[in-house]
């Protein structure tokens, strides 16, 4: 019996966006050394990034938060509003920079420090490409607690889609919003991790959210949990 040859997965198509050419060059060297990654374009500001997003059909855009003409946050917002691709991985200069929270609200799939070790950058790109976020739940909680003042000041109203959640799905959403991983939620609810993953998937689908990062932001914005609340 002959084994059928399985075709290799196409490389992840990446666009680098940073106003510093030296930074882009360094990232390109790291990424192009990976057999599963290919840099298909570069941009020096947010306006150029939006143009490339519409033309290159990239999978992941690694974008600096602060750039001339149009910053990474607004560029991310416009790119994400235009469609599902590319997913955006935002780079920030300082840990817990307010740009990071704004980037998540704008639709970024995660954020990293600009001086991140190469192996973490590679892991993050692969995670974002696979549909995951690269912000650990505990980091997400810490981030939103730190910048809760950026949330709307008006009293939040419960949106109609919340009524579509089952009691268990709502409980899982609250656990996610409090920064718990799937494994931790499974232990608390005495169910399997696979069951929790299924519940999370249903919550995201019913609420029209992309990933668990957006779920955390959603829960805070709609008053399901409060900053500093345990």
Detailed description of the structure:
With 230 residues, the chain is of the alpha/beta class. It is built from ten helices and five strands; from the N terminus they run E-H-E-H-E-H-E-H-E-H-H-H-H-H-H. It has helices spanning 21-32, 46-56, 72-82, 98-106, 118-129, 137-146, 167-177, 182-189, 193-207, 212-221; strands spanning 12-17, 37-43, 60-64, 87-92, 110-113. A five-stranded parallel β-sheet has the order 2-1-3-4-5, with helices on both faces. Helix 4 (98-106) links the parallel strand 4 (87-92) and strand 5 (110-113). It is globular and about 50 Å long.
SSE ordering: EHEHEHEHEHHHHHH
Give me the count of strands.
Answer: 5
Span between N and C termini? 59 Å
The chain-level structural class is alpha/beta
In round numbers, the mean pLDDT is: 83
- Portion of residues within helices: 40-55%
Number of helices: 10
Summarize the model shown.
This protein is of the alpha/beta class. The chain has helices spanning 21-32, 46-56, 72-82, 98-106, 118-129, 137-146, 167-177, 182-189, 193-207, 212-221, and strands at residues 12-17, 37-43, 60-64, 87-92, 110-113.
Write the layout of secondary structure elements.
Elements: E1 12-17, H1 21-32, E2 37-43, H2 46-56, E3 60-64, H3 72-82, E4 87-92, H4 98-106, E5 110-113, H5 118-129, H6 137-146, H7 167-177, H8 182-189, H9 193-207, H10 212-221
Parallel strand pairs: 1-2, 1-3, 3-4, 4-5
Helix pairs in contact: 2-3, 3-4, 6-10, 7-9, 7-10, 8-9
